[in-house]
Specification:
With 74 residues, this protein is mainly α. It has one domain. Helix 1 packs parallel to helix 4. The protein is globular, with a radius of gyration of 12 Å. The mean pLDDT is 91.
């Protein structure tokens, strides 16, 4: 997962404003109580952070892959 995918999924799941609040404040126990932003800054992979956030916020597994992106028209 790219960092841009992480942010797109987070914003889609939690909204453009609340997602950034969560990334700054939600302590992720399974990542040593780091916030998402702290974990990303320490080099933890975005997919690992995203999945930790999903578990912490009880996001249904079927939504963990995020939204489908429409292909660009040529």
């Amino acid at each position: 997962m790219r960092l841009s995918d992480f942010w797109r999924n987070l914003e889609h799941e939690f909204g453009p404003r609340y997602s950034h609040v969560l990334a700054d404040t939600l302590s992720l126990t399974e990542l040593g109580s780091l916030t998402a932003n702290e974990a990303l800054n320490k080099g933890i992979k975005p997919k690992q952070v995203w999945e930790a956030m999903c578990r912490a916020q009880d996001v249904p597994v079927e939504r963990w892959l995020g939204v489908d992106i429409e292909p660009k028209q040529s």
